[in-house]
Specification:
three-stranded mixed β-sheet
Length: about 200
């Protein structure tokens, strides 16, 4: 009886290692499958990265692209500036050629009045004088509309800013010294700028 029990124990003890071996084999197989599964996406990612690197432009290609972009921008800027320069020169030439158009247009009505006055056969000196005064006033208004103003010089202190002394008048009294005694020729300003100095006689 004792021998049979020992044999059974030996058999049972012998079976356990076999089961353990099979379990170990199964575990190894599972781990291999898992490793293969894990290895596959990693390899795929590496391939994708390599393809992306191949597709990405190199440093030299990037620099060349920047050079081409800058060159294109430079050529565009030069072309735009050249067009601007041509347009400006054209406008300047037109301004020089037709710059007096506004002035002439403003003066033409005065010219019309002169022509009508000359065509009139009236011999009345008073009527002619009145007609001339009306034309003169109209002409002054036309000049004022263009920004032309007469320099008020009579009895003013002499200044070289807008006056030119052509004569010195002695013995006029202390209150007249350095002042304009007479305006020989009127001066004018255009939009505040002196375009003709007033020619005056100054007390000495």
């Amino acid at each position: 009886m004792s021998n049979n029990k020992e044999e059974k124990k030996i058999k049972v003890e012998g079976e356990e290692p076999k089961n353990n071996q099979e379990e170990n084999k199964n575990k190894k197989a599972d781990t291999k499958k898992e490793e293969e599964k894990e290895a596959t996406p990693k390899d795929a990612d590496d391939d994708k990265k390599e393809e992306a690197k191949k597709k990405e432009p190199s440093k030299e290609e990037k620099l060349q692209q920047q050079v081409d972009d800058l060159k294109d921008r430079y050529l565009r800027t030069v072309a735009e500036f050249d067009n601007y320069k041509k347009r400006t020169l054209k406008e300047k030439a037109e301004l020089i050629l037709n710059g007096g158009e506004k002035t002439v247009t403003a003066i033409l009505p005065v010219l019309d009045d002169f022509e009508r006055a000359l065509a009139n056969d009236n011999d009345d000196a008073k009527a002619i004088k009145e007609g001339m005064e009306l034309i003169y006033k109209k002409f002054i208004k036309s000049l004022e509309s263009l920004g032309v103003e007469k320099i008020d010089a009579k009895d003013k202190d002499f200044t070289t800013d807008n006056m030119e002394a052509i004569a010195m008048v002695p013995g006029v009294g202390d209150d007249k010294k350095g002042k304009v005694i007479d305006c020989v020729q009127a001066g004018y300003t255009l939009n505040g700028k002196v375009i003709r100095h007033a020619k005056v006689a100054v007390g000495q």
